[in-house]
Structure formats: structure tokens, C-alpha cells
Design goal:
Layout lengths: L2 H5 L7 E9 L8 E9 L2 E7 L14 E3 L6 E4 L8 E3 L1 E8 L4 H15 L13 H11 L31
Antiparallel strand pairs: 1-2, 1-7, 2-3, 3-4, 5-6
Amino acid sequence: MEAKNFQKLVKPNGYQVFLFICPASIPCNFAIHSWFVCVRNGEISRWEVRFEKNNRNPNIGKHLHVNSLPSFSGIEIIPYISKFLWNAKLLNYIEGNENSAAKNIFNFIEKSKNSYPYRDKYLLWGPNSNTYVQWILNHFPDFNIKLPWNCFGKNYINKNATTYDNATEF
């Protein structure tokens, strides 16, 4: 589906949280990259963890990005070349009003810049974009979404969130 068709799903009132996926950048395009698009009263924001460091807004984390790419487009097919982006696939979404699960998820995602334990770490097998998405989904089991098997990193949830693997970080 093209980005302009996703834009048609956005409602001017209430809350919506969309979960998108696309192939990871080459040469890892056998894996999946996931991210959230959040909407509050028609205002759209994209939340994701990326291997590139966040130089535009580093106070939210080294690897946590907000609006670094168009909301409804995938990531770069070739790293660092923003001219060519994968097509996004909508995995699922939730919507509601002031007293809804959609608002609670929206608020949780917005607060993740202060609470996500791996916002300054990125490793190929986790923590990564899928770790971030799964971390949020784990807090909202009623959202009832399962990431595909090739969302590597989705199972990387360290019980001691302040301790990291000794693997090389990007």
C-alpha cells in the first residue's frame, strides 16, 4: 500500500496507533523493521529505534527517533540513502477516544523517550527496533499483535534493563 493510502486512515479526532513493518535495509533485508505511527486528533508522529544515531534530537536517546522519516514509508533500502525507501506494510492498528486503550498506548509511546531502557543502545540482534516495539506491546497485551518471526530482536528483553550485552553497538 502506498503512503498516500495510509494517510486516508488518519482520523481528525481521537487517538490512533498504527504498527508498521518493512524489510530492513540491505544487506539485512531478510529481517523486518517495525515502528509505530501515533495520531492524536489528526497530528501524526512516527516512533522507532534505528541503527543510525539520532543527531537531530539526541535528548530522547541515541537510537530512539521521532519523525526522522515520513510516517507511512519504510526505511532506507540502502542505508543512509533516503531517496529509496521500502514500502510499508500495516500490521495492525487501534483507535479510540479519551478513555480508550489507544490513548493509553499513545501516551506510553510518548513517554518512552524517558522510560525505554535501551534508548541509547542498538545491536543487530537486540536491542533494536523490534525490541522497542515488543517492549511496548508487552505493556498492552489487549492490543493483541504478534510481530512476525523474522522481527529479530523482539525477544531481547533483558531482565536487568540496565545491563547490556558485550556485543558491539552501532
